[in-house]
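Minutes, structural biology subgroup

Action item carried over from last meeting: produce the C-alpha cell record for DUF4340 domain-containing protein (Mediterraneibacter catenae). EB confirmed the sequence was re-checked against the source entry. Recorded below for completeness.
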Amino acid sequence: MRKKNRGVLILVIVLVLLLAVYFGLRAWNASQEEKAEAEQEAATVHVTDTAAEDIVSLKFNVGNGDLEFSKEDDKWYYTPDKDFPLQQSYPEDMAEAAGSITADRELTDGDSLDAYGLDDPAYTVEYTDAEGNVTELLFGDMTGDDYYVMISGSDTVYTVSSSVIDALNYSLEDMAQLDDYPSIGSGNLVKEVITQNGETTTYDSEDEDQAEDIAAVAGGLGAVTLSEAADYSVEDEDLDMYGLDEESRITVEATYTQDDEEQLLTLYIGNEDGNGNRYVMLNDSRIVYLISDEICDNILNN
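Output recorded by EB:
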C-alpha cells in the first residue's frame, strides 16, 4: 500500500513539474514575442503617427478629383455637401491609412527634391487632427512599388508603400451609401397602387382577374436595382428638373409581405433621361436613381 501511495505521489510531483515547465515556456515565449514586437516597433520609421479617431478632416486628390471630408460628432461628411449619403467605412479607413504611414526607407544625404518628383508632387494628402494640427503629405515619383514621400515643411524624404494611395483611391460615387431595396415578386406582392395625373389604378393580388397584371408589375418591381444615381442629394427646388415634383411625378405604392408582415414601398417615377432610363426616387430618400424605361414600363404595366 505504501509503495502504491509513493507511486501516486511521484506521478503528482512529475505532473506538477511538467506543468511548471509548460507554463514557464509559455511565459518565456510570450516575453520573447513582446520583445521582438518592441524591437520591430523601435526599428519602424513612422512618417505619420496620428490615431484615426483623432483625425477630424481629410483633403486630397489622388486622381479622382478634389475630395474633402470632415468629422462632426463622430460622423464623417463630404464637406462640400453634408447631405451626400457618405458610407462611413471609407473616410474611417482613409483616416487610418493617412495617420499611420510607415516608411520602407528613410533617405539620408539624398538628392534635390526634383530628383524624387517632390518639387511638383503627383499627389498631396492633408489631414487635420482634433488639436488643429495640419499635416500635409507630398507624394512624388514612384520607385518600384513605393512612392517618394515627404511631409510639407520637412527636409526628410521617405519611400512609402503605394498601398497608402490605394486606400484613398475611390471616387465620390464609390463612397455613396445607396438605399436598400426590398425583394419583391409575384409571391409576396399584395397590391400596387399607381397614381398619375390625379387618376389611380390598383392591382390587387386577391383579384383573380388581375393575375397577369400582378405578375407583370411584380416582375418590374423585382427587377429594380439601385446602382446608378443622377443626383445624390437633390434639393426640393430641383425636383422638377427630373419630373419628380409633386405635380409631375407618378407615385407607385407597393404593398408586399416580408417575414409574414406587410410592408409599404413608395416609388416616385419621373421623366426620361434621353438614354433609355427614367428618374426614380424612393420615399424619404434624397437620391435620384436611374432605372431603365423597360423596368419602369413593367412597374406601370404599360
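Discussion: Confidence is low (pLDDT under 50) at residues 35-43.
Next step: EB to file the record with the rest of the batch.
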